[in-house]
Amino acid sequence: MSVAKLAEGMKAKVESSDFEGKIKFDCGDDGVIVINNNTLTTEDQDADCTIGVSLEDLEAIAAGDLDPTAAFMQGKFEIDGDMSLAMKLGQVL
Question: Which terminus has fewer CB within 10 Å in the chain: N or C?
Fold first, then answer.
């Protein structure tokens, strides 16, 4: 799956959420997904919190097949910036 396709699948949930903040999923060469309050884009921009994660692991988290807390503990992604924003992602994933 591409970042654009994953973003499209996440879009409705993000837009209907009350998430506040700006967070970026950085999937390296595969691209980025930026959630800014209740909007979503695949255009790279600065964010308050950046999560470095493989596209495969982000797909699994979004599908509910990979628990985000377990993935973090296993070192499957890294968080740079405001960790409290990352903890609120349950609202949109």
Answer: N
